[in-house]
Amino acid sequence: MPDATHMQAREAGLDGAGAITLRDLVREALRQRPDRIVVGEVRGPEALDLMLALNAGCSGLATVHANSGRDSLDKMVGYCILAGQNISIPFVRSSLTGVIDLVVFLRRRPSGRRVEEIAAVPRQLDAGVFTTQPLFEMRGDALRWTGARPDWDQDLAAVGMEWPS
User: Fold this and answer.
1) CB atoms < 10 A from the CB of 106, how many?
2) CA dist 17 → 6, 8, 11, 24, 43 (Å)
3) How many domains are contained in the chain?
4) Structure pTM?
5) CATH code of the domain covering residue 117
6) Given this model, what pLDDT does residue 75 score?
7) Can you count the helices (H) and strands (E) in the chain?
């Protein structure tokens, strides 16, 4: 992969030193002025650093284990709060919806993981409840377009992409 830097967290050594956390890696990645940051699995306070990086104009993606796409947004809020005492829930909720465009929800099935839903994250009307706009949903055994278009779909035309007709 050209111009890619792979980073990996590590536990502290026997002497208690040398730990490298995901938070450290996200901040270090920002120093390299990346086009995008990919975090394999967000599961703690690194969520705040990732959100701030995305809010600074860097694009990226991450995985989160949750029961639904909407639940993943609430889980990200909880992870961000783990980062410190000065973090308010309204700030995190507002910032997350400012940087997350899409949520892709996969469900584990006996046959393997399958995409169950692709949803847009629109501007939030209620500060206490996340809303999502389903774009593609599992119907029967196939992922089908709902007919909905996100409010940012005009940006797709700028990069030569179109929604199905």
Assistant:
1) 13
2) 22, 16, 9, 14, 22
3) 1
4) 0.82
5) 3.40.50.300
6) 95
7) 5, 6
